Amino acid sequence: MILSQKLENFVLHCGEMGSRWGFNRTIGQMVGLLVISEQPLSANEIAEALRISRGNVSMGIKELQSWQLVKVIHVPGDRKEYYAPNGSIWDLANKVFEERRKREIDPTLTLLRDSIIEPAESNEEAYAQEQMQQIHDLLETVTKWSAELQRLSPEQLQTLMKLGSSVSKVIDLKDKLLKK
Amino acid sequence: MILSQKLENFVLHCGEMGSRWGFNRTIGQMVGLLVISEQPLSANEIAEALRISRGNVSMGIKELQSWQLVKVIHVPGDRKEYYAPNGSIWDLANKVFEERRKREIDPTLTLLRDSIIEPAESNEEAYAQEQMQQIHDLLETVTKWSAELQRLSPEQLQTLMKLGSSVSKVIDLKDKLLKK
DNA sequence: ATTGACTTTCAAATTTTACTGAAACTTTAA
DNA sequence: TTAAAGTTTCAGTAAAATTTGAAAGTCAAT
User: Where do the HTH marR-type domain residues begin and end (chains A, B) (predicted)?
Assistant: First the structure.
């Protein structure tokens, strides 16, 4: 398993980006590799392609499974496990989004709610709480909205995105219709 | 500058989240602190409140300025510089989004474009390129859409988000209008 | 041109995070 | 029940990121 220059570049780039998406470099590379590979890969092939230890691959796979980003494939008559991306690019992106929401936004919302609910004990706290309320409202709106968007079919979502800013015209229109 | 338990919790939490949003723990704490503080704070006050070194604050401020998240305030007759969040919560969130797009999505799009443009040199590369094309299209759609959304006024955006799932009705509506 | 109040820089120390590889574990087949 | 082929775990090590603090820099007032 040796990658051409072009493919290696892509995989390395995924590594750099990996940390931004919520995992570490190696795991980013693993996702990149699996995505561009037509055949499922065994742990050894991954280790070889990325020049990392077998143990590291094992830990990476575990992490990717907790994100639901890879699926395991068993080939009859072969005891090795093979790994492949769990769904289309679109599915993967969705899962990353969803998972990050769970890990980052939700705990923050909880903390903010708890903080806001108890009465301010000073002027400073009163101001701080107003700000926290703002953050809370923002996060909640965004969370709800992204949940709604996920309910739309990919086609509807495409339509909506392609509407772009002219979506505002449609909204205005809707307002007018409602008033009638 | 000593924080009440509640405020300290919030600041620490911002620290944890900081790394998710693209900066490190300390810088996350700094943002949290500035956001909940009604008065602008001097570098020394920040260092004291967060129990970190003066030098660290200086570097953090520099980083936050590169994200355009803080503004400097000069008080007449006082040589110290004071720092405050650069805009509302909404503005800050927007800036983080915008900045991350620049730092993460844009370079990825460039790499993908470059990779896709040159012809595949093998079957593997051909498959890989198809996948890269998918990623490219996804990122481009999302980028364009977020740019469009940023053009809407906050009120329009609020309206849109609050539409929630009935957004699909709006889409249907649009379809019908087009057909006429 | 010196002092004092402040800020910035950056090499070195520290802390955190990731990786390796050998040992332990699991599973299948003979 | 043993061996062989595979996977996982985790203590120790290596690498990366962060932090400190002392020194250098800036600037206004004297």
Answer: 33-80
A18-58 tens-digit pLDDT: 988 989 999 999 999 999 999 999 999 999 999 999 999 99
Q: What digits encode the pLDDT tens for the residues A135-152? A: 999 999 889 888 888 888
Q: Is the CB of B44 under 7 A from strand D?
A: no
pLDDT tens readout for residues B100-119 = 999 999 999 999 999 999 99
Token pair for A118: 């108890």
Q: Is the CB of B19 under 7 A from strand D?
A: yes
Q: Specify whether domain B5-85 bears CATH 1.10.10.10.
A: yes
| Residue extent(s) of CATH 1.10.10.10 domains in chain A | 5-85
Q: What are phi and psi of B73, to 5 degrees?
A: -125, 130
* Distance from C-alpha of A177 to C-alpha of B31, rounded to nearest angstrom: 44
* pLDDT (mean) for B77-81: 91
Cβ–Cβ gap A174/B173 under 8 Å? yes
Q: What's the gap in Å between the CA of A122 and the closest CA on chain B?
A: 9
Buried residues in A131-155 as b, exposed as e (16+ CB within 10 A): bbebbbeebeeeeebeebbeebeee
Q: Is the CB of B55 under 7 A from strand D?
A: yes
